[in-house]
Amino acid sequence: MQNDTRRDLLVGVADALGFVLGALAGWGLGRLLGFDFVGTPGYGGAQMIGLVFIVLGCGLGKWLARTLAQTFTRDRP
């Protein structure tokens, strides 16, 4: 039971960190390419593209963090 709780905690923390860090990476990439969603007023095309970068960063960051967490939580013989 203890190992299940530890594994679940690790996966949950990895999900949260991957989500937030992925969003920040997506936002940074969007800003670098000129599509700033956060720092510009209005909801034009550039802002929507910036939002897409943030959302994709969230998803990719969570996927990567979950994949890495699963490699650390596999039962080893």
Automatic annotation (TrEMBL):
The chain crosses the membrane at residues 9-30, 42-65. Keywords: Membrane, Transmembrane, Transmembrane helix. This is Transmembrane protein. It comes from Methylibium petroleiphilum (strain ATCC BAA-1232 / LMG 22953 / PM1).
